[in-house]
Design goal:
The chain has 468 residues and is of the alpha/beta class. It contains 16 helices and 16 strands. The protein has 2 domains: 240 residues, Rossmann fold, CATH 3.40.50; 208 residues, Rossmann fold, CATH 3.40.50.2000. The chain is 43% helix and 18% strand.
């Protein structure tokens, strides 16, 4: 059996079972795949070095081999903080107003992708499958091809793919997308992002999209398809039943003193719609004064990307907005918003989810959003809570029995909270059963198997020419 080489911006070495819940579901799934295929996980260590040497730190933890490199400060500034998170991230989340185009960002992005390629290439054997992850490493496949690799190489995008009318605002957009033609299989979370990619290929590159998902541009043929990612349902349910989760559940319920809990868990990011969520919750308090003192919003929002100035502004805005809402509505024995700027292990979050009557998951645009699926998995089957979900999250296509809302409309958010508060137990159970079936059946293991088997089959009998 061929090995699997996973390449991502950062590497998450597996931890012992005793630390379960500290790792994300994607890390758990990739680690399992690497054990199954005897593979290697390659990426940036997260550490900086004064001078890039190409030194690889090889380690083996719990049956998984990781290979990491350090980057120079300039690399991190231009490739990671710059092009990846100040150019591509906002653009791919439809925030063209926040995207920054700087020549040095683009050159740093190309340089680091080249460094990844030249460092990992010697580790790759002829029969290996190579799986590249996310927007940080879009050109990596082309860089590997230039070094002579003819392996099957796949790419998976974990964020949305923007409409062509937005993507063309990116300088050298054709160059970036043409580099993706070096992959044998490109994966997206949803048919919407896949359709946007198809439209760009046809409109801007003059390519042809065949009914079987094959894309043809010039003499290059490749496949693109939707593979909606899930959570590790079995592992998360176990985490939700752990002593850690039960303690977190009891701690939150005790502090609630009989009040209903509405929970939101998001990175501190403008794509998550936190300001819009707060305004929708404020409208609910304005329109339902009988609920004041009976409910509170627990918003957990750990900071992210503190080196990017846009995120500093987000934090300041949310601090001010939550303070204004609390100042306007709070009583001596009740605060409407508990706004927490720190993260928690997944087992504790599972306990918080189970304690909450309602989850507010209202991103303005999201590739998938696994918090929605985690909330569903953590619920008590006999008395489940209600999921309020943005229709602009990828998860909305699978979790159709959530209360779907337009996150830009504070009235829709307010109405959904009111409906969730009044929803009969029988309806909550019916909706939850439909959603948990999807979460259970299309979990992260299903996603990983579906993608890897599709990549393994690429080029077999479809007339594809050898990779360049």
């Amino acid at each position: 059996m061929s090995r699997l080489i996973v390449i991502s911006n950062r590497v998450s070495a597996p931890t012992s079972h005793g630390a379960a819940g500290a790792q994300g579901g994607l890390s758990v799934a990739l680690a399992a795949a690497l054990r199954e295929y005897r593979g290697i996980w390659f990426g940036w260590s997260g550490q900086q070095t004064e001078s890039f040497t190409g030194h690889i730190d090889l380690q083996r933890n719990l049956g998984v081999t990781t290979a990491t490199i350090d980057l120079e400060e300039q690399d991190v500034d231009e490739y990671y903080n710059g092009y990846a998170n100040r150019t591509l991230w906002p653009l791919f989340h439809y925030r063209i107003d926040l995207a920054e185009y700087d020549r040095s960002f683009g050159s740093g992005y190309e340089r680091v992708n080249h460094r990844f390629a030249e460092t990992v290439a010697p580790l790759i054997e002829p029969d290996d499958l190579v799986w590249v992850h996310d927007y940080h490493l879009i050109p990596l496949g082309a860089q590997l091809r230039e070094m002579g690799l003819t392996n099957r190489i796949g790419f998976f995008l974990h964020i949305p793919w923007p409409p062509a009318r937005l993507l063309v605002s990116l300088p050298f957009h054709q160059r970036l997308v043409r580099s993706m033609l070096a992959y044998d299989l490109i994966g997206f979370h949803t048919e919407e992002w896949l359709d946007s990619f198809h439209h760009y290929v046809e409109r801007e590159l003059g390519g042809t999209v065949h009914p079987d998902g094959t894309i043809e541009v010039g003499d290059r043929r490749l496949k693109a398809a939707a593979f909606p990612i899930g959570i590790d349902h079995k592992e998360f349910v176990e985490a939700a039943s752990s002593d850690t989760a039960r303690a977190a559940h009891d701690r939150l319920l005790k502090s609630a003193e009989g009040k209903h809990i509405v929970i939101g868990v998001d990175r501190l990011d403008y794509s998550k719609g936190l300001a819009e969520r707060f305004e929708g919750y404020r409208r609910f308090l304005e329109e339902h004064d009988n609920c004041r003192g009976q409910v509170f919003l627990l918003q957990i929002a750990p900071p992210s990307r503190g080196e990017v100035h846009t995120y500093e502004a987000i934090r300041e805005d949310l601090d001010e907005l939550s303070g204004r809402i609390n100042g306007e509505f709070a009583e001596v024995d009740w605060v409407p918003i508990r706004y927490v700027n720190q993260g928690y292990p997944r087992a504790e979050l599972a306990g918080f989810y189970r304690a909450a009557k309602i989850a507010l998951v209202t991103p303005l645009r999201d590739g998938m959003n696994l918090v929605a699926k985690e909330y569903v998995a953590a619920q008590d089957p006999e008395d489940p809570g209600v999921l309020i979900l943005s229709r602009f999250a990828g998860a909305a296509l699978q979790l159709k029995d959530a209360l779907l809302v337009n996150p830009y409309s504070k009235d829709e958010i307010s109405d959904a909270i009111a409906k969730a508060m009044a929803m009969p137990r029988e309806e909550r159970i019916r909706r939850w059963k439909a959603m948990v079936e999807s979460v259970r059946n299309e979990d992260v293991v299903w996603w990983r198997h579906a993608y890897v088997e599709a990549l393994r089959g690429c080029g077999e009998g479809d007339g594809s020419p050898p990779a360049p």
